[in-house]
Structure formats: structure tokens, C-alpha cells
Amino acid sequence: MNPVQKSLVGGGIAASLLLFIYLAATQSMMQPVLLLIGLALGFTLFHARFGFTSAFRRMMSVGNGQAMRAHMLMLAAAVTLFAPILAFGISFFGADIAGYVSPVGVSLIVGSFLFGIGMQLGGGCASGTLYSIGGGRTVMFITLLFFIVGATVGAYHLPFWTEELPAFEPISLATSTGLGYGGAWALSIALFGLIAWITLIVEKRKNAPKMAPLPTEHGWKRIFRGSWPLFTAAIILAVLNALTLMTRGTPWGITSAFALWGSKVADFLGFDVAQWGYWQGANATALESSIFADSTTVLNFGVILGAFIASALGGLFKFTKITLGNFSASVIGGLLMGYGARLAFGCNIGAYFGGIASFSMHGYIWGIMALGGTFLALYLRPLFGLSVPKSNDSVC
């Protein structure tokens, strides 16, 4: 194991503490609480290397479904926690509780497919981009920059996709079908079990390689240094998402903050952002307020800082090399993810994780279309010098 990067750990803790104090002094108490949740999310994501991009790529390229089964466990835990929270409106700060339930239409299908391509080119999904930045992966700063650009353009175009093109009304397994939250929970658990079983069948038929083990400590030291089991992280992420729901009234999300950041920059440059359809109604307040009043922004900062502290504790923080290939892929991938996330009402966190946890049909459609985009991207990655796992490789 690498030695602890003590100065970086101290700097990360100091930055987190200062941000906590600033939020407590200038915002509602909800914001510093969300910062703590974000720190825990980033810490968990980094330690488990809990990926969505890599999970989809392993499944589509060599048939390895270990990470996909971790997804199913995470979703099973999430729906178990979300069901009573949504049914009874359980809240810490008195916020109205609402899951992510969005329409199923052309916008969702196109957006999630684009996101699937983008995350395989950009080197990470929305959560992966944030925790990789926390770990010092240099090219992900490029991905994030163009993620923000894509999300901003997507926000500008969103009224066309949602108002001019066909879509079904939002479909909730709990409230649109008559199943109620109990029935929707049972159906969801059955679906997760079926998907996990299918991944096992695919692995057996393809004789898929196993994921390469990552270095780790033992005993209590493993909390701070080394890799965590995927299944452990799956449970923790579900609990943290439920805490987010009870704290701010909606589940964990990431990419709406990117659209906000980019729109504020565009406004500063002279664009009449306030007239965009995306920033009308309820969204107008966010555009006019400080970014520190935006709960998703605070969560994002927490994820980056939490991953930074985790990487430094493991002695793993370091800036990495940028090549022409991965730079180009990051630009294209970031643009596709940002644009696709706005069209699809969220990313791998807001639409896939948060949508399915909220019993929304759009979350399942998002996952299917993102897998389709991943399959296409397997043929695009070598054009940028990016690797694709082979059947005789160990998968890492």
C-alpha cells in the first residue's frame, strides 16, 4: 500500500470544514448536511471504485456482470428505503417529498442513448467524473468542462425535445398502476432478481473473466485505505441516497448543477439565459441565486472532496497523463453526456439510480438505452486509443 498523503488529507479536511462553516453561516441548515452526505458519497465511490460506466462496458464487452449485480443490490436496497419515505412523506427539514418520475418519450430515448456513448468515451459517468477528479485523474477535468457545456446546450434545447416531440406521461409503478408502494416494491425486487440471474447466465455462456482484485487493507484500516467490496458500497450508496431524499425532498442528482453552472457563465457572457424555457417557472430561482444555495451543487462539491480525501488516505492522488486520443474522447464524451442528461431527465444517478429507486418506468428505459449506447461505443473507443476488455482479459 502507498503511504498516506498527509498534507493532502489535511488540505481536503480543511477545505471541507471551511465549506461546511460557510454553508452553515450563509444558507439553510440543509446545505451543510447535504455537504456531509456528499462527502460520504465521494468517499464510498472512490473506495469501492463503484462504477456505472465500467459496469455497463464489462457486461456488453465480455459478459462480466459482477458490477451489474452490485447495481441490482443497490437498487433493491434503495426501493426498500424509498418506498416508506415516498409513501409517508418522511422528511428531516419539512420538505415535500417527491421521487424522480419523468416522461417516457423521444427525449428520454435519444438522451440516454447519447449518454451511454458519452460515458464510454468520456471515461466515466456523472458520478465517475466527479470522483475521478477527486482522485486526480487529469483528463476528467476536460470531461467535466465539456459535460457542463453539453448540459447547458441541452438546457437551451430541452423545450423542443419535451414539447415538440411525442412522449407518454410519467409512469410510476407505484401510483400509475394501482400496485401501491408495496406492490411496486415486490415487482421491483422481482425484476432486480431476474436481471441478476440473467447476468449469471450470460457470464456462464461467455465464460466471462472475473474482475481483477484491488489492493486493500484488512480489519478496521480497510475503512480508510484500500478497496471496499462492491456489495458493501451498494448498500451504503442506497442508504445515502435515501438520506438525501429525506434531507432535501428529492433523490441524489448531479447534472442539473452542470446546467446551472454553465448557464450562469453564459449569462455572464451576455446570453439572455433567463428567457430560455428551461429556466422558467421553478428553475428561475436557482438561476438568480448563489450556486451555494443549490443543493445539487453542494452534493457535487462534497463528492469531489470526499473522493479527494479517500484517494489521499490511500496514497493514490496523482495527476495523470493526457494524450490526444483521450483528450478528444473526453471532449466528445463530455458533450454527449451533458446534452444527453438534459434530454433524458438525468444521468446514471438522477435517471437510472434515482428514477428506478423512485419506481419510475423512465429509469428502466434509461438503463436499456444507455446499454445500447455502450454497445455502439465499444466500436468507437479504439478510434481514440481507448481499450476494450477482451474475453481472455482479467477485468479491472
Automatic annotation (TrEMBL):
Transmembrane segments: 7-25, 31-52, 73-94, 139-158, 178-202, 223-243, 298-317, 329-353, 359-380
Alphabetic keyword roster: Cell inner membrane, Cell membrane, Membrane, Transmembrane, Transmembrane helix, Transport
One Pfam short name: Sulf_transp
Chief location of this protein within or outside the cell: membrane
Domain of life: Bacteria
Topology in the lipid bilayer: Multi-pass membrane protein
UniProt subcellular location: Cell inner membrane
Family that this chain belongs to: Belongs to the TsuA/YedE (TC 9.B.102) family.
Listed name of the protein: YeeE/YedE family protein
Organism classification: Bacteria, Bacillati, Bacillota, Bacilli, Bacillales
